[in-house]
Amino acid sequence: MKLTSSLFITGLFCSTLMLSLPSSAATTLESEQVSAQQQPNVKTFTLELWAPDEYAPFDSKVAEFGDLYRYRYTPEQQAFLATEQNRKLNFELSPALKKRYQLKWIAASTPQYTRIEKMSENAILVGLDDGERSGETYFELWVYDSVLKQTFMCDPRVIIDEIDPV
Predict the structure, then answer these.
(1) The whole model's pTM is what?
(2) Are 17 and 28 in contact (CB under 8 A)?
(3) pLDDT for 131-157, tens place per residue?
């Protein structure tokens, strides 16, 4: 509620400011605001994987589903400020893994606020709705191992920070 009020007040201030500017300056300011809102805020998770017969680093996690697969995301979590618009998450396989593994599907704890924008065997781009303020969004990313013919799940952490920047 506090965020909405401050955004509304800021919007009124910008409108008032634009009324007092010459028309060419107002048009420039308006186009810059639209451009800033259309620019995507993309955060990328790079996924590293280890099969059951491979030695994994100590900081890797065990897959929730799958025969002792291990994984690690770089970075481990991503965060967006509540004020950010046009938010996108890019999930991609580490380049060394692209021949063996394929990204098969992604699910979200808040599907009403997410959408798959692009999907390939090596990457998935997910959009987050601008109105979504659920705090933490849980994702399930399903991966297929083409050598062992198994599917397993790796879950990244996404936080939507509800504190406005100072």
Answers:
(1) 0.69
(2) no
(3) 656 667 788 899 999 999 999 998 887
Q: At 4, list the tokens.
A: 């909405």
139 within 8 A of 107, measured Cβ to Cβ:
yes
Tokens of 48: 């590293």
Interaxial angle between packed helices 2-20 and 23-38, expressed in degrees from 0 to 180 and rounded to the nearest 10: 150
**152: phi then psi, degrees, rounded to nearest 5:** -145, 170
| Contact of 129 with 162, CB cutoff 8 Å | no
Residue 58 DSSP one-character state: T
- 4/110 Cα distance (integer angstroms): 21
Phi, psi of 55 (to 5 degrees): -85, 125
Contact 100, 122 (CB under 8 A): no
Cβ-based neighbours of 11, under 8 Å, separated by 6 or more: none
